[in-house]
Amino acid sequence: MNTKKHFKQNHPVHLALRDTYYQKAIELLQQFQKDSVMSPKIADYEKVLFLLRTARDHGNLSTYNQSASNKNGQFNQFINLLAGNVKSVLSMLNLKKSVEDSDGFFLSFLGINQASVALQAEEYERRTRDIISCMLSTLELSKSPYEKLVKDNLDHFSTLEHKRYKKAEVHYQSILKKDLSPPVYKKKITPFS
């Protein structure tokens, strides 16, 4: 099959996947904010990162189609920036975990006491919450432009493309309701590792 034809044919499917994974990531971020009494969890934000990366990848595939709008490309960049924010959250959470780990390297390498460790952990927690807060306020600003983008995409679809979009959307929404586990990568063991 001709590559250009492939991307044109699958354009609505890639957009549906982008939108479905993006919407699920945003739903989780908002849910985590409601549960903000508890500390953010690494596993939760790893799921969000997986969803955003998948949305970004399908968004990028959707722009290979020559009829893709400039707004779709801009939205893909926006998703990429969100993924960067989530990586920052994960970085802060991992630093906090490392600091709090009593037999970890922070205590021994830095030669600091428990009081200093507690201060560091609090600082990482504060930075995590700041990043999350900024990300959520940005998402609030993006709500209307995103809804307009989706509507514009649907309005430009043929009847067949619209059906393909909806079919893919329903299918992947049902998948995401069942399982949100990001793929688990096992470190390849080599003789020198």
Report on this structure:
- By secondary structure, the chain is an all-alpha fold.
- The chain has 6 helices and no strands.
- It is elongated, with a radius of gyration of 20 Å.
Short description:
With 193 residues, the chain is mainly alpha-helical. It is 79% helix and 0% strand.
Biggest sheet features: none
Rg value: 20 Å
Structural class: mainly alpha
The low-confidence runs, each spanning 5 or more residues with pLDDT under 50, are none
**Strand content bin:** under 5%
Distance between the amino and carboxyl termini:
42 Å
Please, what is the average pLDDT? 84
Number of helices: 6
The number of distinct β-strands equals 0
- Helical fraction: over 70%
Q: What is the N-to-C order of secondary-structure elements (H for helix, E for strand)?
A: HHHHHH
Globally, the shape reads elongated
Task: Label this structure with key terms.
193 residues; mainly alpha; 6 helices; 79% helix; 0% strand; elongated
List the helices and strands and how they pair.
Elements: H1 3-34, H2 42-62, H3 70-100, H4 105-110, H5 114-156, H6 159-178
Helix pairs in contact: 1-2, 1-5, 1-6, 2-3, 3-5
